[in-house]
Each structure stands twice: as structure tokens, then as C-alpha cells.
Amino acid sequence: MALPRPVVICGPSGSGKSTLYNKLLKEFPGVFQLSVSHTTRQPRPGELNGREYHFINRDQFQENIKQGDFLEWAEFSGNIYGTSKKALEEVQSNNVIPILDIDTQGVRNVKKASLEAVYIFIKPPSIDVLEKRLRSRKTETEEALQKRLSAARNELEYGLKPGNFQHIITNDDLDVAYEKLKGILIKSQMPLAMATGSSSSVVNSFLDKPAASATTVNSSSQD
Ligand SMILES: Nc1ncnc2c1ncn2[C@@H]1O[C@H](COP(=O)(O)OP(=O)(O)OP(=O)(O)O)[C@@H](O)[C@H]1O
After folding, report:
1. Which of 3, 22, 190, 210 has the largest count of CB atoms under 10 Å?
2. CB of 144 shorter than 6 A to ligand 1
């Protein structure tokens, strides 16, 4: 049986990726699932192995990388994070559509693995708006915020380059951006059945369909 096509959601920190896919997960429970990454960092209080992350040690992670078990991996602040083929297949084998939240480096690597994914880039309306949103999220120190803004410029350069993503959504008005996301998923043959709430037909409608042609959609009202 063919497996559901993963949805790759990428965009600079603060562009609204998690806000958008969390709406999707909430509106369509059992249809989508976030793929659980592996990490060498220690679990934080309340985090469960296999739920927030698969927690493994560095030796094991490096061994798994050697074995080719990871679709993509990267090191941040002294810890390795990555998406394993197995984690993705586990979601797919339950006939659930995996969502991958990865950065542009991860996208480059996932593309090498020829994953038949839908690639969506979330773009902030501007760097100024991105900065405002990150500041009001109040999750970063000034230094971390500056790092994220500087990384954002590179992410945008890759994300907006024609051909790198099948779809680009400008996250201006959240509700409009979310409707655009759903529209893209419908065009990608997934959720004709979303309206019916039937997860199996959602997944079935998503199987073995050709990649949608490149589109750029904008959540702003002039769109
Ligand atoms: N369209 C929008 N209008 C206003 N605020 C928004 C919009 N979309 C997201 N936000 C807010 O912007 C902040 C950043 O969004 P979010 O945390 O979803 O970004 P992210 O891309 O997942 O970031 P990260 O990669 O750092 O996890 C959040 O506080 C969120 O509530």
C-alpha cells in the first residue's frame, strides 16, 4: 500500500510555522501528526521519550547517522537533532500524514532522500514584522533573537528562490494564511475529504498523486 505523502513546513523562526500546523493538528485530529525528532539533549521536565523527542545519546546518534538512518540532522548549541526515516515511516504506517518542521538545511537534505513530500515555505510579511512577532513571543534573549533574525535572512533567500519550494505562503493575516495552507493541501489531493472529516479518505486522496505545480500564495488581502 502506498504511504501518505509527508508535508514539509519550513520558514524562518517566528514566521508562524507552528502556529499554522498546530491549527491543522487541532482541526483535523488523527489526519496529521508531527514527526518526532531525535535529539541528544537531555529531556526537560514533563517531556516524554517518544512524544516530544526520541532522546538518545551522542554515540548512538552518530552510529545511526553512519548507518544512514537519518533523513536530515543538524547540530545546534552542542546537541544533535534529526529526523529519522523510521520516525517518519511509523507515522505513515498508521495512515497518518506526517508534518516535518525543518529548516532550509534540513530541506536540502530531505530533498536528497527523494522524499515525495509537499514542500511549503512560510514567509513573514517583512523582517520588521518578524522581529516584532519574535519580540512579543518573549521566548528569546536579545542575543538569541539577533541570531534568529540573521538566520532568517538566509532562510528567506533560500525559501524564496524559485524552484526551492512548491508553495510559498505569506503569513500576514493568520486566518487567511491558514485557509491558504488548507487550500494547498486540497490541491495536493489530500483533503478533498477534510470536509468530511474522514481521515482514511483524506489519506487515500493524497496517495500517489503528482506534485502540485509551484504556486505562491499570499495571505494579505490583495491576494
Ligand atoms: N499571522 C500572524 N499574525 C500575528 N502574529 C502571528 C501570526 N502568526 C504567528 N504569529 C505569532 O508570531 C509568533 C511566532 O510564531 P510561531 O511561534 O508559530 O513561529 P515559528 O515559525 O513556529 O517559530 P520557531 O521556528 O521559532 O518555532 C507567535 O507568538 C505567534 O503567535
Report:
1. 190
2. no
